[in-house]
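Researcher: Next entry in the queue.
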Amino acid sequence: MSIHGHTLASLVGTLQSFRLAMPVVALMTREMLTCLNQLPCLLEGGWRDFGAMVQLTPEALAECRFWFRRLPAWNGFSLRPVTVSRVLYTDASARGFGGLIHRVLHRELEPAVQTMVEYWEVGFPAASVVTELEGLWRALVAGRAEMRGQVVLHRTDNMCTYYVVKNGGSQQSPTLTTIVRRIFVFCIQFGITLASQYVGAGVIITSGADALSRAADTSDCRLNKGVFQRLWHVFGPFEVDRFASANSVQRHPLTGQPLPYDSLFADSKCQGVDGLSADWRGVANYAFPPVSLVGAVLRLVQEQGAVALIILPHWPAQWWWPLAQELGKVVGMVALENLRSDGAMFEVVRQDGPCHPLGTYPHADSVEWLAVWVPGAAAR
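Model: Structure for this entry, 380 residues:
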């Protein structure tokens, strides 16, 4: 699509006049400015020939459509409310990000109402500003239900992150601008008014976000994909993975799509938090819980009469062993070693992740692992 340079320059100039009220202006006019810079120069002074036609790129056209949709909705709307209703702390490390959401009541912070943790995928770039911005993005997605329609003050100890969010992107880094654009568009979709605030590292450490970003989640371990597929064909299909993370969730053998899953902490992809607090009835559950939670899982399945396949170690000395035998008596217990054809029993899902769910247990390699099929109350 082509338009006169004067028309495009007038549009961009009008939008730029809103910049103090709307930080998103800088972010959502970049492509139009790039098109203006393609106009031919007059003489040697560098003046542009605004009487010439300019070709709008698809990206610039998308920005025009954005403003066509948003400006009528923002007419008369206070774009900078002064009352903060939520405070979001985030921090990122080379391992992952952590975040906490606090409600604000009478200008005082209430205890955190949501805690978020997510670990980077293998190969994720470890550049500090990229991880900080990506952490903010994923925290917004994970906490969208709590922050929808709210005025959110984001607190960070990374000065570059603060300035990039405040200025609506980066002149030097298209990567950072892309992430910030994603953040602002998401906030618009969910009615979130976002402001960023730089605070010292001590504030972030005290908030707990720093510790969350560096914590090692010992349950972030996945059963061998081939073994899982064999279990799927015998006992599946499964509808939900009750103990997983964005990295360790099992996938549908045919479509390759991750199963809906519950996570220890909220992350940007989980369907719920804390598998033990969920209702397991009415769906086919796959559960590979941390060993410390096996007993609680068995009790929950028994109480709810749920259908579940539970991965656990052969450990007769544990108090929950008789319960496991009782629940699995209809079909029995399947030794996972008999289903494994190649590779380790457990897969490393992060570069620094645990390779065995028993962690530092001294005889971990000699433990026999079982799949206990619980067909539900109706079958028993």
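Model: The first helix runs from residue 5 to 16.
Researcher: Noted, moving on.
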